[in-house]
Amino acid sequence: MNISAPMRTQSGVLSCIGNTPLVELGERLRPDGGARVFVKLEMTNPTGSMKDRMALAMIEEAERRGRIQPGFTIVECSSGSTGSSLALVCGAKGYTLLVVTSDAFSEEKLNHMRALGAELLLIPSHGGGSTKALFTEMISTAQALGERPKTYGTDQMNNHDMLVGYKKLGEELWQQTGGRITAFVHSVGSCGSLRGVATELRRRDPEITIVAVEPTESAVLSGGPPGSHAIEGMGAGFIVNHWDDDLATEIVTVSTTEAFEAARSLVREEGIFAGPSSGANLVAALRIARRLPPEAVVVTLLPDSGFKYLSTPLYRRAS
Fold it and tell me: How far apart are CA 132 and CA 176, in angstroms?
């Protein structure tokens, strides 16, 4: 053993956030004669989700401005991934976290938040899945709790601090592709990730096509009515604050069934185990790739790991 060799380590778990791999899809998924498709493996972040980026940015930007002090409680509403990411960051920094969430979301997500130290306040879904009414109640409850003394509500639906973390994601994509991006495709939840990445990419190249993805069952960005769907992490059922009509070049709708099947194809054909919003992103990215020439480059994100959905219909099935 060479005890004089330098140790290749990182300083704390928060330093492991970001710098995730970008992988090109193989021929079995890539459309014949279509563009190359690259997926960014955001499940390699510490909690298995891209939301680690926004959680770190929201907390550190608030610290920098003196909005959070030792002994404070952080409050947020979340379907699971943001809550787990905030729990990781708050645990590392010594803050208490209260997450307003619901039984509409997977047991893995709820248990993951608890395991990381978060206290959960559950809003019943009454079997309705992800709906506008549920998200509205979760948001209003979290906002009210955030008004208490020695409490800071991160308010992800309106917090622009998250864009700091997602602009860094855009920088990574630009560097990893050598600036050769034809189209960027991504789903809309709070819309912070789409806005942050798109802003950074268009700063570098205004001609990049930006494609927003939403559930077919709740296609409000496309002018449709809100509805219930099972693609966790996207499709709030209303026009979110971070959305701007000029943000995306076009909007693509993907059904829950399409998203689930694409996620299963991804693990069968590529060995990449991802969640339902990853499946939705993949469906949309492949549609865009089919109409582009072979030298074009389509990039999308795989926001989280399939391990968060083992108890859901996505992976809980006979085969």
Answer: 37
